[in-house]
Design a protein that fits this description.
Strand content: 15-25%
Number of strands: 14
Shape: globular
Structural class: alpha/beta
CATH superfamily of the largest domain: Lactate dehydrogenase/glycoside hydrolase, family 4, C-terminal
Radius of gyration: 19 Å
Strand order of the largest sheet: 3-2-1-4-5-6-12-13-14
Distance between the termini: 42 Å
Helix content: 40-55%
Amino acid sequence: MRSKVSVIGAGNVGATLAQRIAEKGYADVVLVDIVEGLPQGKGLDMLQTGPIIGSDARVIGTNSFEETANSDIVAITSGVPRKPGMSRDDLVLTNMNIVKSVTEQVVKYSPKSILIMVANPLDAMTQLALHISKFPRNRVIGQSGILDSARFRTFIAQELDVSVADVHACILGGHGDTMVAIPRLTTVGGIPITELLPQETLNKIVDRTVKGGGEIVALLKTGSAFYAPAAATAQMIKSIILDKKRILPCAVRLEGEYGIKGVVVGVPAKIGKNGMEKVIELKLTPEESAALKKSAEAVRELNKIMKLE
């Protein structure tokens, strides 16, 4: 029996994510959006790719949450995307109401589901979903570090002219300007990147990674990134459905790990059938630890704006 994944929001991220899941064939997909006809049309179009790509996954589009009942996983992509000049944090009050409403519906129809947050500001919206749903922390996780790490890996591979498959990156912290790249734990074919690139080049790559989303927003002008965010979310969903137990950088609520308590922030975690099954604690230098705690405090400030603290 195939798993059931519901994707909330049929915009660029949501529709691309739904397509990636459906193409794999291991889950049926429900695509939800408030715009009449939009999820239905996109869902029908995806369904009709089945005979071509060899997938029997059932795809439906709907304006109602009733169709999402008993989902195994729910990915929330709905929300207002960034515009040029906006930070992710600028979206907090606008997307807060959307995420609150969606989370309430998820709890109503799929009380045993695992919730993956994709809407920005990512860490704060994950914290909000935890607060509203009352789900345990292992069942509410955010997609952030996979995307940030992918950007870091891409730029490193380009600089060294090597395969991205051989680049393993370490990114911690919030999904935004306070993210913490750890070059000393980033490797290419097992070799620390600090031995392959001069510090000046590394600094430029880290800076471009931190501003990676903004670079795309500035180019698109009327939207934000969606191919890579969808791929990152699909990787999380695959690890859950197939119980892969991948170690992936995700936004989770820390309960004392890394000396941080009660705040959602990006860290490596084991992702399996139960959602976030274990936080992986890395040995950080005092400077790295301080940067991670600073990132957590930035998330805490957004939580205060939402009156979660």
